[in-house]
Amino acid sequence: MDCSDLKSYTVLYAEDEETVREIIGRSLRRACKEVHLAANGQEGLDLFKAHHCDLVITDIEMPVMNGIEMIRQIKALDENKPCVVVTAYKDESHQSDLAEVTIFKPVDLQELKEAMMRACKKHYT
């Protein structure tokens, strides 16, 4: 995996806010090989299992299954899968020790891309 080129990544992006999910999803689709969008952690986990994504990006506060639980279950399947948390909250309960990188909302697209590359470098280089 070439961590300097996002075009080689298949990405899972889980975000419950539809407008944010669509805007970020559009940007990710221009930058990445393939992007799968989920409205909650359970959808994200199902998409991860179906598509074997290279990188996971997730919000924390979501219905059905939150991002922390989704990351925990993904890491149980593949402990080396890089994960980026995107959250509006700066307290410890909205972060995961299993994520390689945490960034805060509002999302700056360049910052997100840099976070994605940092997370992947920890596992793919």
List keywords for this structure.
125 residues, alpha/beta, five-stranded parallel beta sheet, globular
What general outline do the C-alpha atoms trace? globular
Order of helices and strands: EHEHEHEEH
Q: What is the CATH superfamily label? A: Response regulator
Q: Would you identify the CATH architecture?
A: 3-Layer(aba) Sandwich
Q: Distance between the terminal alpha carbons, to the nearest Å?
A: 8 Å
Which CATH class is shown? Alpha Beta
Q: Tally the beta strands.
A: 5
Which structural category fits the helices and strands? alpha/beta
Calculate the mean pLDDT score and round it.
89
Rg over CA atoms, rounded to whole Å, is 13 Å
The total domain count is 1
Uncertain stretches? none
- Report the helical percentage: 40-55%
Q: Give the oligomeric state.
A: single chain
Strand content: 15-25%
The CATH topology annotation reads as Rossmann fold
Q: What is the count of DSSP helices, taking H or I runs of 4+ residues?
A: 4
Could you give the order of strands across the largest sheet? 2-1-3-4-5
Sheet with the most strands, sense and barrel status: 5 strands, parallel
List the helices and strands and how they pair.
Blueprint: E1 10-14, H1 18-31, E2 34-38, H2 41-51, E3 55-58, H3 67-77, E4 83-87, E5 101-104, H4 109-124
Parallel strand pairs: 1-2, 1-3, 3-4, 4-5
Helix pairs in contact: 2-3
Write up this protein:
The protein is α/β, with parallel strands linked by helices and 125 residues long. It has a single domain (6-124), classed as Response regulator (Rossmann fold). It is built from 4 helices and 5 strands. It has helices at 18-31, 41-51, 67-77, 109-124, and strands at residues 10-14, 34-38, 55-58, 83-87, 101-104. Strand 1, helix 1 and strand 2 form a beta-alpha-beta unit. The chain is globular, with a radius of gyration of 13 Å. The protein starts with 9 loop residues before the first strand and ends with a helix. The model has no long low-confidence stretch (mean pLDDT 89).
